[in-house]
Amino acid sequence: MKRFYYFGIIASLIYIFAVILGGFLWTGYSHISQAISELTMTLAPN
Fold first, then answer.
1. Which pLDDT tens digits describe the chain residue by residue (46 residues)?
2. 3-class DSSP assignment, residue 14
3. Count helices and strands in the chain by DSSP H and E runs
4. How far, in Å, are 1, 2, 13 from residue 17 at the CA level?
5. Cα-based distances in Å from 37 to 2, 3, 18, 25, 31
6. 26: which DSSP letter?
7. 23: Cβ–Cβ under 8 A, 6 or more apart, which residues?
8. What's the Cα-to-Cα distance from 10 to each of 7, 28, 37, rounded to whole Å?
9. CB under 8 Å to 26, separation ≥6 — which residues?
10. How many angstroms separate the first and last alpha carbons of the chain?
11. When you count CB atoms within 10 A of the terminal residue's CB, does the N or C end of the chain come out lower?
12. What does each C-alpha distance from 44 to 14, 15, 26 come to in angstroms?
């Protein structure tokens, strides 16, 4: 059961890393004023 605990931690870290990286790759994106879902919308540059 402890293995699932580690999978949850790893998944959370990957998600956080992807959001931060996506925000930095999108010129003009603001982590403060824009929603995270805008990084994955249809016309997003990433």
1. 777 899 999 999 998 898 888 888 888 888 888 887 777 777 766 6
2. helix
3. 1, 0
4. 25, 23, 6
5. 31, 29, 12, 15, 11
6. S
7. 29, 30, 31, 39
8. 5, 29, 21
9. 39, 44, 45, 46
10. 36
11. N
12. 20, 18, 8
- What is the Cβ-side half-sphere exposure of residue 16, based on CA atoms within 13 angstroms? 6
Structure tokens at 31: 């982590």
The domain ranges of the chain are: 2-40
Tokens of 23: 């925000």
The identity of residue 29, as a single letter, is Y
Q: Which amino acid is at 22?
A: G
pLDDT at site 25: 83
Identity at 14, one-letter amino acid code? I
